[in-house]
Amino acid sequence: MNLKYKILAVLAAGIALTACGGSGTPASTPxxxxxxxxxxxxEEGVTEPINLRTWTLDDLDDTQTTTFVSASxxxxxxxxxxxxxxxxYDIYKKEEIEKLAVGDKIAxxxxxxxxxxxxxxxxKSIERNDQHxxxxxxxxxxxxxxxxxxLEDDDTYRTMTFDDYPLYYEMGEKTxxxxxxxxxxxxxxxxxxxxxxxxxxxxxxxxxxADPDNWTTYNTTLVVQGGKVLEVRRxxxx
Length: 238
Hints:
Layout: E1 4-7, E2 46-47, E3 65-78, E4 81-89, E5 91-93, H1 94-98, E6 105-108, E7 119-122, E8 126-129, E9 134-137, E10 147-151, E11 156-159, E12 168-187, E13 196-199, H2 201-209, E14 220-225, E15 228-235
Parallel strand pairs: 1-3, 2-6, 12-15
Antiparallel strand pairs: 3-4, 3-14, 4-12, 5-11, 6-7, 8-9, 9-10, 10-11, 12-13, 14-15
């Protein structure tokens, strides 16, 4: 059986949060009760992230898909189960960003927003750096309604912060069991560190619980299939 692999992409300040595609009413729905992706209706004339409607936390239970997610481990490992906040970030079709012009509208999540909370803003200025494949909208993320994008691969752009991280938004919190043969790959000691591997649910749980506050969105990736954590990866961050 061939497994499908997908990376959940799995986010920019000064505008009131509104439901994507909505009329401008303040959104206060917590991430844990986010609007199902399938119920979202795209707003005509607005460039939206291509992953806005494509996945929810329930997709982590898919037995046919191995999924990589950025996560913050919130409660360590208890009784063999890991509790984490799962995050995504906005990605856009390359052709849509390349044809974006002043007067158009674009939707995006502000950093730390919930999945069902994003802003729609008019493009008042756009600067392109073709050499480095950067696009700055409305003066960039330092400005109200501003956004910075970089070319992620041949087909997509993603949001970008000062340190080249994406602008993360919160998908919600999920508790998942560790697979019996789960592997921890930890290279967080320093920038040149080789990954130290720990194998087995008990050993990985002990390693996570020994350092409970240092598993964050910026350094931690979970590899999940069928609702179980197959790998935990942690990298060095400044």
